[in-house]
Each structure stands twice: as C-alpha cells, then as structure tokens.
Amino acid sequence: MTRAALRAAKAMTAPEAKPEKRLETLMECHGMMQAARGPGSPLSFGEFRRALAGDLAVLLPDGVMPLDLAGTRVVDQDGQVTEDALDLDLEQEMLLRLLHKIGKAAAVVSDREFQSELDQETAFTLLRKHGEQAVYEAGRRDLIRWPAGPVHELVDLRLPPLVVDFYRDIPYDSAYRGWWFACPICRWPMRITVRNNAGTTVGVARCWYAPHAEMGASYLFGLPTDAGAPQLLPEPAPPRPGGREAVLYPYLGDVPTALPTEGHKALTRGIWRYTTIPGLPELALHDQLAARGLKVSLWPGLDAFDLLVEVRPKRGRKTSYKVDIKDYTSARTLADLIHAQEGDRGGADWLVLPDHHGRHVPLLSGVCAKYDMQVATASEFGEMICEKAGVSWA
Predict the structure, then answer these.
(1) Residues 6+ apart with CB under 8 A from 207
(2) Segments in the chain forming alpha helices (H)
(3) Rounded to whole angstroms, how far apart are CA atoms 166 and 86?
(4) Which terminus of the chain has fewer CB atoms gathered within 10 Å of its CB, N or C?
(5) Residues 160 and 139 sit within 8 Å (Cβ to Cβ)
(6) Interval 159-175: pLDDT, tens
(7) pLDDT in tens, 290-308
C-alpha cells in the first residue's frame, strides 16, 4: 500500500508528467490500493486522491492498526513527496528483496525507480573484493564522511573506481539555479523547495533525512534577482539535549554556504540513506568509546556487524559486545527484517538505534528477545558500556 501511495503521489507532484499519463498512473495505483484493502473496505477514487495529501494511515482498511504509519504524510505543504514516505518505500523494498532471496517472498519484486539496496550491496561487494579489513574500513569511512563534494576531491578518496561511479550529478530537486547546499550534519545535498510565506515567495533548504532537519538542518533563503548565490537563514532549532544524549548529538556549526552544482557530485540516495546516515552514529559511538579508553573495532570481519566493544573491568573477566546499528524510519519494517533474518546475520547480540529513534526500543526489544538480542539507543549503550568499564560517559 505504501508503494502504491508513493507512486501515485509522485505522479501527482511531477510537473513534467502529461495529464493523461498522470491519470493512468493514479488509476493503476488506486486499483492496487483497492486490491490490498479487499472488497469489504471500498475506497473511491476521489477519497484516494484526497488521502494522498493527508495521513497515510487513512488508507489502511478498517481493523488494521496503523502502528508507525500514523501521522505519516505522503505529500507535504509544498506539494512535494515527503522524506518519510521516500524512506518507508526504500525500507519496504529492502525487506521484500531479502524475503525474495531467502524464499519467503510476500510479493513479486518488480523493477523499481530506486535501486538503492542493490546499489548498497554492489558497493559493499566491491569494497570487500580484496578481502582486506583496512581497505574495507577506509572505503566505508569515505562513503560516510564524503557523501558529496567537488569532483577533484572525490577522485582522491580511498574507493575502488566502480564505487566512485555511485557519485552522480547533484539531484535536480536539491539544486536552485545551479547552486546546492550540503546538510551540516550528513553533508549530502539538502532538498530545495519554493513556497509562499506570508505573501512572499521564499526558498527552503532542508535535509532529506527528517531527523536532521528537525535538529536544525532547515533553512530559508530569499530568491536572488540575479544569478548570485542564495544566502541561507536558519529556522528555529530545538535546544541541545543534556545528560547522556549530549555526547553524540551533532553540532551544526556555521550556516551552509551555496556550492555550484557544476563540478560537484553526490552519492546515490540509497547509499547515502543506508550507508552514510547509519554510519554517522556508528563512527560517533566508536570514536566516543575509543576516546574513553575502550577497545572498539569497526565493522570487524569485513562487516560481520558494526562494532566490537571489549570491556575489561578492574575486577572480573573481559566481556565483548557485538553491536549492529540500524537506522530505519519504520520500526515495523525493521522488526520484520529481524524476523526474516532470524536475528542478526553477523551474530550481533546488541541492536543499537540512534537516539532520535528511542521510541522504537519497546517494540524491537520484544522482537529481538526471541533471538537473544538486546536493544538500546546509542547513548544508553554508551553509558552502560562506560559504567561497566569504570569510566565516565557524560
């Protein structure tokens, strides 16, 4: 249902689409939605179109719990497909591909506009090709630290040539008249929209990853009257958290400046979303634990899992913690993925979530307990490990 809603929303919001093609796509997606809802829960074509601009949970048939779909919008106030809807689509695609591979396919996996999971698998295979841990770690770090930038700098990254091919031109919807802005947190091109604000037309630059935008990676800019570069003005950001969460909370730094699209490239969305984005808390947790004197290994065994943390307290024997860090918009999709894999494929005994997904911990704890895994947020895990090691976290 999410896939049908997203495809319909993209047809509605694509300015270049011909009216007859737009109607054809909407009717096809309406049919898919009707098939999913069943004869006992009819949905008129008009209701379907109106629902695309509202809460995604409205499209669910009666009696089906919305879970983490409640409050999710497919189209935002600017008439654009929302970041969360794009993430949900990618995550469901990844789950379907995995189910298909292991012979438990719930649906036929068709060709998709986003080949994100395939891009990620290909990139990881190429990084592992030489079987050298140092080469793999260096390449993975580069994909996290440099998801976009000048071509003359990207060619110097420690990446196999075929992986470099996953850097493409700056996306059209992340550019304004030949300029783009890097998110101050993840450094990928921010999304650009133009909206009416109190009778004035203004530009908006927001990170495609909604939690980053909510942390402050969201800006306004006046539309230049000439070919000059736009100047960003930050929107109000929430206060930084205190206590244990302050350790891993990112710093936004200075307001991003405009960069020319010419001569710059960015990773494909899938590699950015499912390598760069979860890689940021992976590196942050690794670096903070290492700075406190703990022995931490990144992606051991060519990425069997994300972190191996070894704690040797003053009294007692050494304990090792195998950690897998996941960043999914949908807790339900991640839970289904864990079920499909019957735990973690690499043997991790801890599932760690970024702090902003702390609300997912209760659901995932129940699922992971069946596979002898424990769940915590990154800050909870860091604090726990430091306490066991006898050092201070915050």
Answers:
(1) 183, 185, 186, 188, 190, 191, 213, 217, 218
(2) 2-13, 19-37, 45-52, 83-101, 116-128, 133-145, 151-154, 161-164, 210-215, 269-271, 277-291, 300-303, 331-341, 361-368, 378-389
(3) 19
(4) C
(5) yes
(6) 888 888 899 999 999 99
(7) 999 999 999 999 999 999 9
Q: Which of 240, 198, 242 is nearest to 220 (CA)?
A: 198
As a whole number of angstroms, the distance between CA 12 and CA 19 comes to 9
The C-alpha atoms of residue 91 and residue 340 are separated, in whole angstroms, by 14
CA 35 to chain CA centroid, nearest Å: 29
Task: Count CB-CB contacts under 10 A for residue 199.
Answer: 5
* Amino acid residing at 52: L
8 A C-beta contact, residue 353 and residue 248: no
What type of residue is 158?
R
Q: Which residues contact 67 (CB under 8 A, 6 or more apart)?
A: 331, 332
CB 144 within 8 A of CB 276: yes
pTM: 0.74
* Backbone φ, ψ for residue 260 (5° rounding): -70, 140
Tokens of residue 192, six digits: 């650009």
Helices (H) and strands (E) in the chain, counts: 15, 14
CA dist 242 → 32, 218, 239, 254, 285 (Å)? 47, 22, 9, 21, 17
Q: How far apart are alpha carbons 197 and 217 in whole angstroms?
A: 19
